[in-house]
Amino acid sequence: MSRRNSGPARSRRAVLAGSASLLALSAGCLDDGFDDASGPGTGDENSDDEETADDDGSADSDASSTDDLVEETHTYQQPDVPESPNATVLRDEGDADAWLEERWDVGEPDDDLVAFVEETAFEDALLVALEAEGSNLCYEMGLEDAELDDETLTLEAEVSDESDADEVCAEQVTAAGLLARVPFASGVAPSTEFVAEIVDADGTTHERRADADGESDE
Asked: Residue ranges under compositional bias (Acidic residues) (predicted)?
């Protein structure tokens, strides 16, 4: 698991060394990428489950499967524990570099995480970062489902203890995170809105949403 990778991280891209103004702008925008829409439930749950049947009895839906929408995921842990679950859309190398710099202002990201970010061709895909508190180093964020419907991409994720029955976990509160690589070939477009439904370690569901420009959306 990525939490056990303590090898030296790769050096930052040249963008980090030479664009302080970009970092300042990006850091100010990243935390506003998704609006907090948490609540005791997801609201209109019954309407979400309703589908209109065609004459042949099949459901009429534009939803796509998780495998079609998310090309690959990578779990990670980082020391900047969020006050509540959050999600950030990374659309280009500048966003990605600023995100890495902001999250690891102390310490370094592991090599596998840096490689995952660097291998992303942002002309063909974007990254969505999901994070929540983990009670110890055995907690991880896992992607449960992804659905594209009515120009809205919904990612469902959950934080859980992934330790074996006989495994001893280091008692350190950390941010359990997940990066999801979403290819444009999946149907995601510049007009796509993003919704993240994150179940935290206590079992509470938190909803975050934003439009494709990363601006908060009520």
From this structure: 45-59
Token couple for 211: 């439009």
Phi, psi angles (nearest 5°) of residue 5: -85, 105
Long-range own/partner contacts, residues 118-121 (CB < 8 A, 24 or more apart) = 118/10, 118/13, 120/96, 120/181
Whole-structure pTM value: 0.69
Q: Which residues contact 124 (CB under 8 A, 6 or more apart)?
A: 183, 184, 185
pLDDT higher than 80, residue 38: no
A 10 A CB-CB count for 27 gives 14
DSSP H/E element including 127: strand 125-134
What is the four-CA torsion angle of 185, 218, 48, 71, rounded to 10 degrees? 20
Any idea what DSSP says for residue 185? G
Contact 100, 70 (CB under 8 A): no
Integer Cα distance of 79 and 175 in angstroms: 6
User: For residue 86, what are its two tokens?
Assistant: 């959050």
| Angle at CA of residue 131, ends 126 and 133, nearest 5° | 175
